[in-house]
Structure formats: C-alpha cells, structure tokens
Amino acid sequence: MFTDILIDVLERLSRLARWQKQALVFSGDMLLLLLSVWVGYSLRVGTWILWSEPIQQMLIGCATMFIPVFYFAGVYRAIFRYAGLGMMKTLLKAFTVYTAMTFLVFMLIGMSPVPRTMGLLQPAVLFLFITAARLGYRFLFLDILKRNSYSGKIRRLLIYGAGDAGQQLASSVSKDPQLALVGYLDDDAKLIGHRLDGLPVYDPDPFEEVLKQTSATDVLLAMPGSPRQRRREIIAKLSTFDLAVKTLPPMREFVSGEVSLQDIRPVQIEDLLGREPVQPNELLLGRTIVGKTVLVTGAGGSIGSELCRQIIGIGATSLVLFEQNEYALFSIENELRATLKEQEIPCSLHAFLGSVCDGRRLDTVFSRFQVDTVFHAAAYKHVPLIEDNPVEGARNNVLGTQAMVQASHKAGVNDFVLVSTDKAVRPTNVMGATKRAAEQVVQGFAALQCEMRCSMVRFGNVLGSSGSVVPHFRKQIENGGPITLTHRDVVRYFMTIPEAANLVIQAAGLARGGEVFVLDMGEPIRIHDLAVTMIRLSGLKVLDANNPDGDIEIVEIGLRPGEKLYEELLIGENASPTKHQRIMMAQEGFMPHDELSKSISRLAETNASSEIVSLLQTIVPEFQHRRDDLVEAECASEIQGSKLRFASGRIQAKGDTLQAK
Length: 661
What we know:
Layout: H1 2-14, H2 18-45, H3 53-72, H4 85-109, H5 118-149, E1 155-160, H6 164-173, E2 179-185, E3 195-196, E4 199-202, H7 207-214, E5 218-221, H8 228-238, E6 244-247, E7 265-266, H9 269-273, H10 282-287, E8 293-297, H11 302-314, E9 318-323, H12 326-343, E10 348-353, H13 359-368, E11 373-376, H14 383-388, H15 390-410, E12 415-421, H16 430-448, E13 453-459, E14 461-463, H17 469-478, E15 483-485, E16 491-492, E17 494-496, H18 497-510, E18 515-519, E19 525-526, H19 527-537, E20 542-543, E21 552-556, E22 575-577, E23 583-586, H20 593-605, H21 609-619, H22 629-660
Parallel strand pairs: 1-2, 1-5, 2-4, 5-6, 8-9, 8-11, 9-10, 11-12, 12-13, 13-18, 14-17, 15-21, 20-21
Antiparallel strand pairs: 3-4, 6-7, 16-19, 18-23, 22-23
Helix pairs in contact: 1-5, 2-3, 2-5, 3-4, 4-5, 11-18, 13-15, 15-16, 16-21, 17-19, 20-21
InterPro entries: NAD(P)-bd_dom_sf, Polysac_CapD-like, Polysaccharide_Synthase-Rel
Family: Belongs to the polysaccharide synthase family.
Protein name: NDP-sugar epimerase, includes UDP-GlcNAc-inverting 4,6-dehydratase FlaA1 and capsular polysaccharide biosynthesis protein EpsC
C-alpha cells in the first residue's frame, strides 16, 4: 500500500516541468539550510534551541551567501535523479566557495552574537544534509521509480575488473532498470573479499561457486588496458558457461577517458581468435610505401580497403584506388578522404573504376601516375560462385593478374605484390586453382625480368571479411538459428584483417623477386567449435540431442562443391624463416613461361566450363577438382541418420511433455 502511494507520488513529480522540479529542489535546499543553522548552533551551545537572535542573524547571512553561490555554480542545472560523480564535483566547488565566505564573515570578521566556530560548523552540517538529499533523490527516482516501472526480465550482472573502468561502468549500470549489478570479479588478491559500493569482489576461480552465489546471467569485461592474450584467456573460460559475455574495447579505441554502457559491445569471436600484435618492422613497412605512389586493386574489398587505410598512415605520397564495384569504391574513397582531412595527412588520393582484365584501362591509369608499388588484391574469392562460374573466375583471377603484371612492368613499377590465398595450395576447387595459376603468372614473370620485383603473399581466412563464416554465423544467431555448418570436421586458419594487411605490406618490404611469402596463421580452428563458442558467447545454449531445451541448433548441410575439409599454406615442406617472425618464405615450382603462356591463351579463348577446369589442371597439376566431395558422400548417410534420430527424439520429448500435461 505504502509502496503504491510512493510510486504514484514519484510519478507525478517526475512529470513536472523542469523549472518546477528546480523550484522544488531549491525550496528543499533552503529548508536544509534552516535545519543546518539550527542543528549547528544547537550542537555548538550544547542544548537544543529552536529560535534565538544568533540563529536569526546567521540564517540571514547564510542565505545571502548560499543563493548566489549555488546558483552561479550550476547546482540547479544538474539532473538530480542521476546524482553521481559529476554532481559531487559541482557540489564540492560550490561548498568550497560558500565555506570560504562563511569562514571570512563569521570566523575572521565576526558577527555578534554568532559564535565564530559556526563559520565552519554550519557549512559542514549543510554539506552532509544536501549530499544525503541528492543521494535520496537518486534512490527514489532511479532505484525505486524506474525499476518498479520496468516489467521485463532483469539481467544480473557481474563486472570483471574492479578498477576505474569497472567502477565507471557500475555507475552507468545503476541507471538502467533492465540491469542489476550483483558483484565484481577481479584477479587482484588485494581486492578479493572486499566490497565496492556495497558489492562484493569475488575470486573468479572457481567461477562455478560465484555463479551459485550470484545467479548471474551476464558478465561485462571492464579490462580495456589488459593485454589481448589475458582477455582471450578470460573470454575462453567464460564461454564454457551459459552466460552472455560483453566487453569494453581496448583502451586505445576510447575517445575520452570515461567509460559507459555505450562503450560495451558483445564479445566477438575476433576477441578469441585475434592474436597479440607483433611490433611491426618500420623499415619493412616503409620500403615500398613511404614517399611513394602506391596503387591498390580491389581497393574496396576487405583486404584491399585495409591496405589503403594502412598505406596512407604509413606515409605514401599518393594512393591510387582501382576497383570495379562502384559502391565499394565510393565508400572507401569517402572514408579515406575523411581520414586524410581529419588527421591532416599529406597524401593525394585518386579513385578509378575499372576491371583488371581491361588492359587499355590499366594503361590509361598507369599513364597518369608514376606508380612505384602495386598491391594486386582484386580477385573473385567465393568458392561456390566460382564453381558455378569458372569462366569468369579464370578470366578475373588469372587473366586479370596477367594484365596487371604486364601493365605494371610497362609502366616501370618497382614492386608488384599479389595477394593470394591458402586455397591455392593443392586446390580442390576452381577458385583455388585460379589463384595458384595467378601465382604462377607472377612467378613466371619474375623469372623473365629483373626490373620489377614480383612477389606473392599467401594467407588463410580473415575475420569479418565479406562472405566470411563469422558474420554469417553471427547473423544466423541473431535470427534465432539454426547455424548451418557444411561439415563438423572442417578446420580453417583465421587472422584479423588489420594484421593480415600489415603483414602483406611488410612482406613486400622483404621481396627481392619471385618469392612466395606465407603468413604464420597460428593454429587452425575447427568450425564446429567456432559455432558452439559463438552461441555460448551470446548467452545462449546449443540445441542438440543432449540438450533438447537449447536455443540454437547446429545443422550440417554438407560440403559445398569443391570445398576442402582442411586448408594448407605450403605446397612443399621447404618454408624458410625471414627477418619477420610471422612471415615465412616458400620456394615453389611453377610452369615454364612459354608453356604457361600457351595455356593462358587458351583460357582467354574458351567459354567452356569443362575446358577451363581441364586447362587449370594442366597449369596446376596438384589441382584435384572436388577431391573432398567423396568424403562428403561417405558421411552423408551417417549425418542424415543422426538428424533423423535427433528429430525423432525431439518429437518424442514433446509428446512426453504433452502427455504429462
């Protein structure tokens, strides 16, 4: 009954106009001023006196000083229900000035018959009263009114990290009625067992005990300054529990030093798979970039666009963007121009639409600039699409590379770098075969001439690229599932886009001509495990035969035509180290230039898909078209049987539930 009346009164007060709320708070402060004078004087004389001449004189003097000081300090411009650190700073400023004035008037100058000590005693009592009042406003309007007006499910939060970021985050959490902070987690033994703002700081190990005590549903990582390796270890540990895990980005991404809920983002799989970056070799970065004119093909793609971002930051004099997709070119050009303007980078930017297969267009672009370095990132890369369109795939990836090499050589380019893929190693699909053929085009050209340094950089999947499995899985989870998996035994290498682009540029700095550089991709990842981890990081459960009450089902749909169960980075075993710990160099064989030229000429003339495949098998002898499709066929009946068993089990479970009802 009392709670209902209180909520009704608070709701009426919250609907008042702003000036009315300010008037109420001011009136309340004047009442507290009267009380502080009365309480302060009574404490000073040792007996309770309701009214006397000293109280009257002091009240007039205090009010004369209080009103202008608190008005001009901005005390009444604050939003009272959000009283926090900012409000306390404003109050401290106002009270510092107010106390100095009362000290001067009552203590130094004196006002008979007011005791001189009242110059300090009254401000102290008033400060306690007003601070308590502000905290009371916050409690009534935020903790009682707002939380009682929210009828949805309240998430119980643990904040991992009891430092400054964690405490600032806790302040933001307290303003959200959907969230209830239940404690902190921290690795610091000095903090464990203590309380922050009345909430306990738990030891995260064993975490099962913490979950039992708190019934937490979410964990927010407030460790923006921690090394990536440490954050990854924590996230990996938390991902084994049914929790929604969110995190603050690294400290370098903050514009200001303050932390709020707006900075929180869901933990992404990149936080688990990304590695601690290695300090780049500035000499390698600068050799092909600093003070030079650089051209990037496929400038609007995942790797191409990141290459462009880093190139302007390293110190290129001029950057030429070449892209056949109009919107992609428009987007990256606008982004780069904004960066150049904002950071005042002295680099000229030029954008050109065109296809790498169009030799005349390439000659036109090269004729306008004295290009020093070319990063050839333009390629068709989606395996199923190229399986269905092998003619266009071969033209773009093979003939386009040949046209780029020839145009670059004709224009006097110093360094030519082909961005390749691990799918070029013992390919089982047309896309991988075209990329291995493109590598051989560059290798053959490097063997014929020495004026232009030609090199290739080969790496695996990059996280977050268009068509990548990670954003695909993320979208499926957001839509409620299921996650479609081609095969539970598929494994892939992963690397973040910025790291891949940075290593490509450094590999170019190592080139002397004809090298195939291979990036250290770390350990391969099982895609099924990736899907399970992404589901758990979203605070959901996997729906399977062992957990029929789960949220997201993982469904195997079978390998796509030409898809591999596993990827490789080397054709042979002859990789040698370089000056960079994450860049290896492979000396791999290639078809003699004359024979390669004949095969490529036939590629250019044919429109038959079967002949394209046959020619690619000639150029790339290790190309075993759709090799792993046989494995898929052998597994298909077993997978289908498991699906039927799982489906019948779910139907039986539902039937048992209905019967029980």
